[in-house]
Specification:
Elements (H helix, E strand, L loop, with lengths): L1 E9 L2 H4 L8 E4 L6 H9 L4 E4 L12 H7 L4 E3 L5 H4 L5 E5 L2 E4 L2 E5 L1 E2 L2 H32 L2 H4 L15 E6 L4 H7 L1 H7 L2 E5 L2 H7 L6 E4 L6 H6 L2 E6 L8 H6 L5 E4 L4 H11 L4 E5 L5 H6 L6 H10 L3 E3 L3 H4 L6 H21 L1 H18 L2
InterPro entries: Put_SteA-like (IPR047795), SteA-like_C (IPR022215)
Organism: Tissierella simiarum
Protein name: SteA-like C-terminal domain-containing protein
């Protein structure tokens, strides 16, 4: 195999994707490559991916590598983490068989993950899933006891300027299929006009579809500056002790945000914020709801999500996967029905018009004379 391209590198894949161009070689350090990261890389049409971590560790069956495989994007692994320092961003490198070549010299040995190898590693993950499930359940129950203040009212909800009372609230999270689900419910957004709440990178998805978020909530690690500046209100998710890593970034943009100290994930507190402000209905897109979702996020349990959904109850409509539920292709029979329906009033109006009636009478007389009737 021979590949040549420009290197773009970052140890955080989500930071790298904004700089990638079609044909680039993505140099990452991403253990257990997840679906969202793989989708981001494939959307950028990278030539290949070089990973200094184990793309599939076997701890659980992460699905990211399968996405790259389906898109014909090769994945290579290297064991030398120092490769990040060996290349500068923008360097041109070559991959020749099992070697990475830079300026005509062998820089590192790489290992290609073909379909058989990916399947082998994923099978190890499937075999290990029961052990991970046991740990996941224990962690969820353990942390649920510590985080029960989320639903008992002991953790105060900050006051916000945005009015949610008796309105629908749409919460968009950067999760699996979030863009396709958002596209599927576009007519709902245009008609109902819900309050738009973007959780970190989910806010950029709203902007991509032509909507300005009313609220952005999160630790601000994956939302763009452009989106932050356009949003009507910004809420920084802080740790329970008050530390807020994303606060300085927001303030450096000249934005004074609301601070929301709370345990749990940003999507959980977005649900609780909408609920506490008396949303009539909460629609969630791209949320993380199962064990694989949470393992891909690097979390060992889902206590806060369990508690938040327990409190929000029947006000929540989860639109995750809705793009698979509803398809509306234009079929020939539907098109024929529309054409016939449009022609009927035209034909009726034509037949009752005086000029047309006179023409038909003359045509009738001509027909009788022609055939001697």
């Amino acid at each position: 195999m021979y590949i040549k391209g420009i290197v773009k590198k970052d140890k955080k894949t989500k930071n790298l994707t904004s700089r990638l161009q079609p044909g680039d070689i993505a140099l990452i350090s991403h253990k257990d490559l997840d679906e969202i990261a793989a989708l981001s890389l494939s959307e950028k049409k990278v030539r290949c991916v070089i990973n200094t971590e184990k793309t599939i560790s076997g701890r659980y069956p992460n699905q990211g590598p399968l996405i790259l495989l389906e898109k014909n994007i090769p994945i290579f692994e290297v064991k030398e983490p120092s490769i990040f320092d060996d290349f500068k961003e923008g360097d041109t490198i070559e991959i020749i068989e099992d070697k990475i070549v830079y300026e005509g010299k062998d820089a590192a040995i790489c290992h290609y993950l073909d379909e058989a190898k990916i399947e082998e590693l994923l099978n190890i993950g499937y075999d290990n899933i029961e052990k991970e499930l046991d740990k996941f359940i224990e962690n969820t129950l353990d942390y649920a006891k510590k985080e029960k203040g989320l639903v008992t009212g002991k953790i105060p909800i900050p006051k916000i300027k945005t009015t949610i009372n008796q309105k629908h609230a749409l919460i968009v999270v950067r999760g699996k299929d979030y863009k396709r689900d958002l596209e599927t419910i576009k007519s709902y957004i245009d008609e109902v006009k819900p309050v738009l709440i973007g959780v970190d990178g989910g806010a950029d998805a709203l902007l991509d579809f032509g909507y300005t978020p009313h609220i952005i909530i999160g630790d601000m690690d994956s939302v763009s500056d452009n989106c932050l500046l356009k949003a009507k209100e910004v809420i920084v998710h802080a740790y329970a002790d008050g530390r807020a890593p994303g606060l300085d970034r927001v303030r450096n943009l000249g934005i004074e945000p609301v601070i929301y100290p709370s345990p749990g994930t940003s999507e959980d507190i977005a649900l609780l914020l909408a609920y506490a402000n008396h949303a009539d209905l909460i629609v969630a897109v791209g949320t993380h709801t199962n064990m694989i979702d949470f393992l891909e996020k690097g979390r060992s349990g889902m206590s806060s999500t369990f508690l938040a959904r327990l409190k929000v109850g029947d006000k929540l409509v989860d639109a995750k996967g809705v793009n698979k539920l509803y398809h509306s292709p234009v079929k020939a029979k539907h098109l024929a029905s529309i054409i016939i329906g449009a022609l009927i009033p035209i034909i009726i109006l034509t037949l009752i018009h005086p000029v047309t009636k006179s023409f038909l009478v003359l045509l009738k007389i001509r027909f009788k004379l022609l055939f001697g009737l």
